[in-house]
């Protein structure tokens, strides 16, 4: 089952059909940047290849400007980094379900 790798966040793909999930970047430097932003210290010892293959971050952690298509929110820009980890998440989730 695909789940969001963000610390203290328990979104599951099977329960959140309207939210996209994104692989960690395969580039080690960008992958590390995502890990730091997401507070995934438990994954720090894993290779970027393993993270790319096995771990995801859900779309609620990305600002609209990080998407190529902000309305459907299913394609990230090349330099996208997750930045939303606060109360804004509930607002984003509510809006995603309203627009679908």
Automatic annotation (TrEMBL):
Give any Pfam family that matches: THAP
PROSITE patterns from the UniProt entry: ZF_THAP (PS50950)
- Give the InterPro entries listed for this entry: THAP1/10, THAP_Znf, THAP_Znf_sf
Looking up Gene3D superfamilies in the UniProt record yields: THAP domain
Task: List all membrane-crossing ranges.
Answer: 76-97
In this chain the THAP-type domain maps to 1-85
Task: Give one GO molecular function term.
Answer: zinc ion binding
Q: Any idea which UniProt keywords this protein has? A: DNA-binding, Membrane, Metal-binding, Transmembrane, Transmembrane helix, Zinc, Zinc-finger
- In Swiss-Prot or TrEMBL terms, this protein is called THAP-type domain-containing protein
Q: Which organism is it from?
A: Macrosiphum euphorbiae
Query: What is the organism lineage in this UniProt record?
Result: Eukaryota, Metazoa, Ecdysozoa, Arthropoda, Hexapoda
